[in-house]
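Q: I'm building a small set of examples for a reading group on sequence design. Run inverse folding on the following structure and report the sequence directly after it, with nothing in between.
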């Protein structure tokens, strides 16, 4: 009898007891709004910002309502507006080009490599063509050579916003993800590395940029209650001309997140154990290509990807269906129609159509799956055995054209 996997791929761990207790304290107080404090009380949101700044090594931090809002606030804060061209990866998720389009700017896609990172050669070619910024997506946790990328962007005078929704806790050569560009943006949506349902964080060392972001988030004239913020002088000019685009995080979500932040290093070790179990189980499998991870990259293995480089669409769909019958939920980024969270650049019709032959070739064989911490390493090993068996059966049968 064929073995079958019996755990859901979308079930997260419970919120830690310390987070539940903190949330109850906030609810009992009734003071959920971040600026609704009494006397010398410090809000949960201000404390989270201070702690996340310390975690990333950033000078300033702002907590907001979602990762997508963080991206939009960062774009506005660096001066991106209607008609500006903003570069971003051809392989990412819809909120990234969506944030660009939402401020009236034009997404310009950069090719990606078989290692699932932005193609630095294509970036160098497009960086000098009048772009206003690069919104770099560390998609599915894959970090490119950030030294080379920053050299390209600095030479072109191109500011970099890092989308770190999938790399919170990751690093390149020891420098935390989000700390290479002018601003780093993170998500605390349910399927990210900390879970508050929705939520986001921005970090930066740029005082003027962060003052604008805080004002944009809806601080009114209460920016003095932020602890991980620039000094009051940084707000003086900006406070008269920066629109309020309210997107604050509330104290309830911040209370839930603070214990998770304290526990994040331990959780990263657990995710990476799942990731390495998947790698070991799928190593040296004909017809399947694993994505190499450079030694310079410190990963957070909360999801797993592999490529089927010689497979046609019918064969890929057959593999997805056969694995699903055995309880393994795979996502395919090469489908012609978007499915749930999975879409590709030609699905985002608010962006001009663009030719990305290399990216299309990569996505045609790209398979993705979540690795929630409700899984154990033996679960990851079982998932890998099921995938291995189904890939082998189809490959040996020649069902791949």
């Amino acid at each position: 009898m064929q073995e079958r996997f019996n755990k859901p791929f979308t079930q997260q761990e419970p919120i830690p007891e310390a987070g539940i207790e903190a949330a109850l304290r906030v609810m009992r107080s009734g003071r959920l709004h971040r600026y609704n404090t009494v006397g010398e009380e410090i809000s949960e949101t201000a404390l989270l910002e201070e702690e996340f700044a310390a975690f990333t090594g950033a000078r300033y931090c702002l907590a907001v309502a979602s990762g997508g809002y963080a991206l939009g606030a960062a774009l506005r804060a660096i001066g991106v507006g209607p008609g500006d061209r903003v570069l971003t990866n051809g392989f990412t998720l819809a909120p990234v080009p969506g944030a660009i389009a939402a401020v009236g700017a034009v997404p310009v896609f950069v090719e990606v490599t078989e290692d699932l990172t932005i193609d630095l050669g294509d970036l160098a070619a497009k960086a000098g063509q009048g772009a206003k910024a690069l919104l770099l997506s560390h998609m599915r946790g894959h970090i490119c050579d950030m030294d080379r990328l920053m050299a390209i962007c600095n030479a072109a005078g191109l500011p970099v916003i890092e989308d770190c929704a999938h790399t919170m806790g990751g690093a390149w050569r020891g420098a935390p993800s989000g700390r290479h560009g002018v601003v780093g943006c993170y998500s605390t949506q349910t399927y990210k590395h900390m879970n508050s349902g929705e939520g986001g964080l921005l970090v930066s060392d740029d005082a003027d940029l962060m003052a604008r972001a805080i004002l944009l988030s809806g601080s009114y004239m209460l920016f003095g209650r932020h602890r991980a913020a620039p000094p009051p002088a940084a707000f003086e000019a900006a406070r008269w001309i920066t629109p309020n685009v309210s997107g604050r995080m509330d104290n309830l979500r911040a209370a839930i997140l603070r214990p998770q932040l304290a526990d994040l290093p331990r959780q990263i070790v657990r995710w990476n154990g799942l990731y390495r179990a998947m790698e070991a189980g799928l190593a040296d499998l004909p017809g399947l290509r694993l994505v190499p991870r450079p030694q310079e990259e410190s990963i957070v293995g909360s999801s797993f990807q592999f490529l089927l480089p010689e497979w046609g669409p019918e064969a890929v769909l057959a593999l997805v269906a056969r694995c699903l019958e055995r309880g393994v939920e795979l996502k395919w980024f090469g489908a012609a129609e978007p499915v749930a969270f999975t879409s590709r650049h030609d699905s985002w019709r608010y962006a001009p159509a663009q030719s990305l032959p290399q990216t299309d070739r990569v996505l045609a064989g790209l398979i993705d799956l979540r690795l929630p911490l409700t899984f154990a390493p033996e679960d990851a090993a079982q998932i890998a055995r099921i995938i291995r068996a189904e890939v082998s059966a189809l490959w040996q049968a020649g069902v791949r054209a």
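The domain at 264-397 is CATH 3.90.1150.10 (Aspartate Aminotransferase, domain 1).
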